[in-house]
From TrEMBL:
Keyword DNA-binding: no
Keywords, in A-Z order: Membrane, Transmembrane, Transmembrane helix
Protein name (record): DUF1109 domain-containing protein
One protein family per Pfam: NrsF
Keyword Transmembrane: yes
Entry's transmembrane regions: 21-43, 55-78, 90-109, 129-150, 157-177, 183-205
Amino acid sequence: MRTDELIAELSRGPWPTVRPARRMAAAMFAGWLIALGGLMLIVGQPLAAVARTGVAPFGLKLGFTLALAIISTLAALAAGRPGQHLGPRLALISLPFLVIAVVAAIELTSVDPAGRQPLLFGTSFRSCLTAVTLSCVPVLAGTMWAYRVLAPTRPTLAGFLAGLSSGAAAAVAYALYCTETTASFLLAAYTPAILIPAVAGALLGPRILRW
């Protein structure tokens, strides 16, 4: 059977969506627990920062990272099914970024230019980049392992989405410790921290997710 015929057959026939979804969820959660455990060993107990930042900033960080993790994971699962239309799912991924960008723009335009740098970079910019990047390693490893039961026809895109979901999941763990309070910091620090594993996933995808 030729490749295009196989893809057509897979897209027409029944597809075992539940098992791959459960496998990926379990692998991501296991990696997330490892990441959280590492943060607990280095930083301490989670949620202690909420007393300093307040509930609203914590809710913004958790909402952004959790929404992105869920949306990108669903898109990654769809990318593993031949014949799926990914346009709407990819567009939905931009929604959390757009919300944060709008809130950040309001913050930045409400202060003098001299006051914008603290809003963007806070006091823990480098710590955020380092913590999220390192925390995503076990999550990305588990996600890539789980993804091998799927059949992505665009492994670079599939790897990017797997990395994006892993980075967002790692950012969820870091959000439990983050002491920053602005959407501008989410835009300037969390976004590149999440995109680093996404780029790594795109580079690894053609090598690991080939079928």
